[in-house]
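U., I forgot to send this yesterday:
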Amino acid sequence: MGLLELAFILLGGRRFDELEESQWLNNPIRAAVLGMVLAALVQSGSAMISIMVGMVAARIISVRKAIPIMMGSEIGSNFPNAIVTMAHFGNRAYFRRAFAGNAINDFTNFLTIIVLLPLEMFFSPIEELSEFLVSPLANVTANFRTLNDITDVISRHVIQIDMDKLEALVTNQLNGSSSDVPTFALRCVNLTTQEVQDFCPYEHLFAYSFWSDLKIGTIIMIFAVLFMFVTLCGIVRITQSLLAGRIAVFLRKTMDKRLPFPFGWATNIVVLIVGALVVIVVQSSNVLNTALTPMVGKGVIPLSRFNILCDGAAIGNTFTGIVVALSSKPERHQQTIQMALCQGLFNIFGVIIMYPIPIVRRTLDKLAMKLGNKTAKVRNGEGGLTVFKDKFTVPLVCVILHPWLLFSDSSNYSCLVIPAKDSTIVVEADLEATMWFGCLLVFGCLTSAFADRLLHLQTLYRHGDRAPLGPYKNDPYQASSWPVAWGELTDDGMNQHYVQGMKLQERYVTQLGYLPKTYKAKDIKVRSTDVDRTLMSAVSHLAALYSASAGTHPNNPNWPTNWSPVPVHTVEHDTDSLLNADFNCLRMDELEGEQVAHKDFINYMAANFAFLEMISKNSGESITSFKGLRDFFDAIKIEKIHNLTLPSWITANVYNQAETMVDTCEDYIFGAAGFNKKENTELLKLKGGSLLKEMISNMDTAVSNNGTGTKLHMYSAHDTTVAAFLRVLGAKQSVLGLKSPDFAANLAVELWIDNNGAPYVKVI
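Result:
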């Protein structure tokens, strides 16, 4: 980015002094378009704000005229993200999400500009507020060391620029015109006399070159752009390799987390602050955005959370501008710091506009996903063209239509002249207001056109926290230590599912308006295994989902407030092939036996014989197989969850080794690949295929009746059920790794219909 900045100085330095009189700067809309183009060329939001601060410091433009350029640059600076998405062309699913992550930033910035630019034109809130904030800092001086101290070591060996000569030119301190300055590069040759200096202090590549600034600038620009492409593609490959295992699981869990009650509302604020702090450290929002875009494509970071991180990164860019501002001359600090703060205020106002209104956030997510879906359907070459087209369409249209749109700079009121087929239409109006009203109208039309519809919903979850299934022989915590019977749902487990039910209500009742507040039998069907803890989890879940229900219970003052009884269906547990992954099945027992009899698995158990013998001796149980170890570990795991002190012989190493063995063996015995044996497809189908088949059948029915039947199918089951379902989908490893689903783990399978009538599925 530093080389690009130097290249553009060589290419256009002689024209900087003409900007103040340019009609592009005297019209805010044109200035915003100019900012889009410049930022797309410079490829960096940090570099762009640095350039803007430098231009203000050099008195090339005023803060007022720089603000529209800064607004437009917020859109153009997102172009590197679009380049990163190209690395995902080989995988359409990844490309769809990555492109949507890139597009949502554009939609956010477009909407922010549509709202703020007219306000700035007429009332100048950003300029006035920033001026108020910096007035006490007018005389502050400082000198900061930034990442430029590292990158300058490389760039000064490529080219060195005489910045004093450039500043003198643009501030009219040189005698004569720009033609009197043959070069801005520091050279060891005289371009006029063709003489070479005997002693030269410059050691960069072009110190002895007789080439013009235009030629040198072009070469450096091409090199910088190519190197940037290679670097960004490298970022994609590295992050993809990092996200192949446990890091992906950690990030996915972290990015989906909310702060504990009652601070859940502040989660997005914390994410916003984290994004800003990271950019303050790395000094570039593009570094963060381009690093996270592959994670969006991988499905690690949700689209909505990525958008918040990027907004925080944009706010963090303000620090870069302030650092540059403080490096200017002290007498210009007030103006330069003000310019830097303008960018921060623009992004803060954008956050205030976007996030308090849920429908705005949902609309932007839908627009981004729609564009990602459309782009992913085209061929690779056309997809690349779409990336460039979407970034340059608006500026190019404005430039192409320039001869037809006649602006008058003498008045806010001017004539809009539009060539028609048989005549010319002339409309006298407030041009800026008319144009922005048109933008809002177009945005509203796009919102309606891109509205997808949720057609059907299915949820699958594990029961909540429970007591152990039973104690081991020497267990210090027997039945009297637990408030409930062995294997029963605890109060924490009930509360976990009540919280899950409230989340379900928030998304599908409040946000999407898909489910009604009041329970109706035709809307929902609930299925549970015939086990107390899953039945109780379903009841707790439903109590929260329909906590706002009214008129569906007796008019009895003693009746629990707004509680509606909802039927939960079940079948005999041992024959439940739908939700019980261990149901009675001779063929499944035979296949599991083949897994256990594999020689590499036998060798694995033999290698851990001493460990199992140690556990047997201390626990009082004879533990020689996976099932025995699983029962023992179930007890100590839940005791640890409940903060009970484990016996001294169960050290951290013993606990971790037992956990690893249980997770590894269970994944393998249930059909996953392992121990030099391919995955057992038949076993995977027996354990999770029936549920997948029923879900597909439910979705087929929903498509055939256009969503007029059952809205929600809910399944309450076990960790083995959820894990088996993920294995059938081929997603267990990427979502959980070897781990089992936690208590109250929840999956939502959403069936959507796009505006073309095509169905697609989201698994959340």
